[in-house]
Amino acid sequence: METFHLLSRCSAAWVALCLCWPAAQSAPVASAAPVWTNSLGMAFVRVPAGQFRMGSDEPVEALARDFPQLERSRFEQLGDEAPVHTVRITRAFWMGQTEVTVGQFRRFVEASGYRAESEADGTGGYGYNPAYDPATTRRGDAFEGRDPRYSWRNPGFAQGDDHPVVNITWHDAHALAAWLSATEGHRYRLPTEAEWEYACRAGTRTRWPSGDDPAGLPREANLFDRSAAPYWPRWRWQAVPGDDGYAFTSPAAAHAPNAFGLHGMVGNVWEWVSDWHDEGTYAASPRDDPQGPATGTVRVRRGGSWHTWPFYARCAYRNWNAPDTRYTLVGVRLLREVDEPPQQARRRAPRQQQRQGGATAGRPLTGS
Known about the structure:
It is a single chain. This protein is an alpha+beta fold and 368 residues long. It contains eight helices and 13 strands. The protein has helices spanning 60-66, 72-75, 102-112, 117-120, 170-184, 193-201, 217-220, 342-356; strands at 35-37, 43-47, 50-54, 85-89, 93-96, 125-127, 144-147, 188-189, 270-276, 299-302, 319-321, 330-331, 335-337. It has a five-stranded antiparallel sheet with strand order 1-2-5-13-8. A four-stranded mixed sheet has the order 11-10-9-12. Strands 3-4 form a two-stranded antiparallel sheet. The relative contact order is 0.22.
């Protein structure tokens, strides 16, 4: 059984899955980045190599001042966001312009015969049920589940084919990347945590790509706002001060892109990355292309969701879950590596194997 951690690191209570101060960035920002589309109709944006400052060291006092609706204890449990450190992304890469959509995942399932874990293991996923009352359950989770009624096909609310797929486990995401790699001959994978934050920030050092003021979020992010608050009145006071018109998921490209041309890096659905989670990772992280810990028990999720409070959707916020977790708020965005000439790829392979240490890299959720 997954423990969906978002507020959990700050509080033992189960609550709704909720929902960087200035520093020089050297990430090149292109306003018209090249876009490439694959066989499933997934669009990818070419993100240039560059350097950035990863993590956050905002003082507790500053966070308590700017997020007065949250308990101070939440700001005292962010040790894994520090220390802020310089990371170099040494190679350009193709990043999914949006999260993987329902329609794209369906085409993958139909072409490959793959069965998502929520269906294959018979335990289902999580879903929205207006008759469900979190206060009557032992965990107080915001959503009903696990239940075989729910899966990527049915999260309990209506989705179009252009909405991000949810109830996807880390293993499902990995299977999609592996199938695409074998089918197309390009190398697809989950982004590392460093690649994800670099792509999210797109040259910024603010809390969100749009700045430090949450009032700007509805334009660029589908978060817990005035559209969603009526469905969860007990958390209404956490809502973003605005309304993007979507109470649940929105079309993956509905909100404005960041400076790299990527939609939804903040909000809509949490996105699995490749890294295992470790509280002390940043203190020992290499400067160039960090891959994360060699082993672990939980994989990192980034970016927040349509049910996430603004504080937990900051660029630097790290969340995690067991890799078999499937939830109404969790999806995936893929990365495609830039193809290299064969001779250059052969030279690079030994270095990559040494960095990865024989294991693929990937925290539980607290809040929504």
